[in-house]
Structures are given as structure tokens and as C-alpha cells.
Queue: 2 jobs
Job 1
Amino acid sequence: MFLPIYIIWVCTLVTSIQGEFTQDFMSLSCGKWLASRISGRLETSTSLTYSNNMNCDVTISVSNNKRIILMFKRFEIEAPINGSCPDFLSVYDGLSTAFPLMFDQKCGTVVEPFSLNTSSNHVTLRFVSDDSAVFRGFEVEYTEFSDPPCTSGEFECTSGICINEGNKCDDVNQCGDNSDESQCTDSEEKGVVQTGWTLAEMIGCAVGLLILLIILIIVTVKLYQRYKRNQSEIEYMSVNTLYEYPVTDKYNKYKIGIRGRREPRQVSFYSNVVVMPPGEKNNAENDLTS
Ligand SMILES: [Ca+2]
């Protein structure tokens, strides 16, 4: 019972060691729900430019009763043609594209970083590209936040918002004014996390580790049983080798039994004395000593 709990705990620990900041890409997370996030970065693609013919929705959710601040660090999408955007990003203030738009079909290049605040703990992004002309796309950093007064486990930014204490000193400016990255001691530095785990990935990790452990246990038990059988055969044969007829493997299998399960009596070549398995008294020896 404790083994699965232990494995899940290990997977959770691995995730927590990675930190509170995760990295995702629209191209890899197309259609996914990035649930239970605290802070992270979302980009259009792992490549230098996004691909043609993308049509991806990604939903991000953070802790209940929190909101999300989206800070766009890069926004380079194909410019409008005849007033319409061939490639574009739309952002919805909720769990799906059915929620109100925060901006609709935005494209072109925005040089200055800009930010948006959601009204709930969910946000949905839709990125669409047509079949020609690709650009670097967008990069947005998102962070859960709440309004003051900050509670236990939260850090109060100079800007006045409360962010997760785990976002402090992780080399990412979640506060927007860098107050979470100033005055950090060496022991507080966490470094940037490159990969985040979803709940499904954590469960997959736990199941995978459990299967691996079961296989290891079975293999170990089998090897130990084989070792004990071999030891038993060696001990028995070493005791009787000098007094036995030369025998074949077939004889040994028959007389000794497969894998040493039987330990029959054998007849000595020299004295015609019955040689007993270890631990049994030899009648012939009794005769000689009496
Ligand atoms: Ca930070």
C-alpha cells in the first residue's frame, strides 16, 4: 500500500525540485489544458519561427481564487493584409474560447512589452497561422497573483500584487518590477526550469516507476532462487563427488532431480556404502564404527 504512495511522492518531489516556473510551447501543447500552474512561459514554437497552418488553443489554469497576469515579452506575428490578420493571436478571459475576448485576432509587431490581467484563474489562447510567411511569434510569461493583503506563502511585490513565494529568486521577473529577484541570497537562487510536468505526466511517472519496481523485484527474486538452487546442488555434489560413479547429466537429472529438488541416495564406487545427503547419518558408517 505504501509503495504507490511513495512513488507518487517521489514524482511530486521531482516536480517540486524543478521549481514553480514551467516552459511550454503552443506547437507542443496544441489543444491542451495546462492545469494547476503557478507561473510559466508560453511560446508559439520550439523553432526560431512558428509553422504554417497552425490552429492551436491552449488553456492555462492557476490556483483557485487567484488571477493571472500575462506579460508579453515578444510579439512578432505576420502584419495585417488589407486590414485582416493572416496569422493572429486571440486571448479569452476564461476556461475556453466561449469566454469574453481580452483581445481578438491581434497581429503585427509590438516592440514594447505589454501585460494583461485576467478576471479569473483561467485564460485561453488561440494562435492561428495561414499557409505562408512565418515569424518569431509571441512569448508570454504568466503568473498567478492576488491582491493584498498577502497571505502565508505569498510574496508581496513592490508593485503591490501578491505572487507565490516560490517565484522569488528564480531568475524570472514575475512581479514586473523585478522586486522578486532583488536582494536574493545564494541559498535562495533556484534557477530557471526548462520543462514543466502536467498532472497526467506525474501520474505517468508514478505508474512507470511502479512497473519498473515490480519488474526489478521479480527479477531479483528469480535470480536469488536460482542462486540458492545452484548452491544446494554444488554443496551436495561436492560432498559425494569422490565416491560416485562417473555419471551423465541425464543420470544426474534423474537421480538428483531437476534443480536439486530431490536428493536421492547414491552408491559409492569403492565401498558399496550408501552415501547420504548432507545432514543424514550414513548407515554404512554406523556399521563400521559399531
Ligand atoms: Ca521571480
Job 2
Amino acid sequence: MNDLGVVCMPKKVIVPRRFMEWLRENHNDYTHKQLAFRADCCVDTLKRLLHREGLQTFEGAKYVAINENPIKMWNRPCIRCKCEKSRPKNQYVCTPCWGREYEDT
Ligand SMILES: [Zn+2]
């Protein structure tokens, strides 16, 4: 799903733990814009995430802790590989497929 109409919701970012693991390994290989697209958040929020995780540092008071809500899961089949492993609700592709998204194109 390449929905570019991502809504910016700075106070309600849900970050799957597996995305954070992926981010830790790969954040240097992508632009903030690409990372934000994958995280389904705006660039500012993505930067806050990187900052909070200690992956990158940014100046400014706005890069402080963001709220983390409990993650709702679902078992909807992945739109790419059809696997039904539970993943965060509203995530239509499984995390492995998600991680491959840019390599495929
Ligand atoms: Zn998949």
C-alpha cells in the first residue's frame, strides 16, 4: 500500500517494536522522509523517535518523549505474502514484506 496521504498525528504514534528494531539497523540507509513513510508518521515524529531511541540527536525542545499507546493487533493476511501473523492493526503488510518494500522497487 503506497498511500501518501499519511495523516500527521504527533501525539498518537504507534510504533511496532519490530519497526524500531529495523530502524535501529537501517536508519542510516534512508532519508528521514523515507523512514517517516515507513513509520506511517510525519518527519518530525520520526525524528523524535530517533532522538528518543538515541539513534540520532537533534537540537530543540520538541524532540522530547512522545506518547506510546498500547498497540492493537490484528491477523489480517499480509497483502503481499498472505501470512497471517499478528501485526499492528492498520498495518497491511507483514514486517518482513514491509522491510523489503524499497529493495523491490
Ligand atoms: Zn508479508
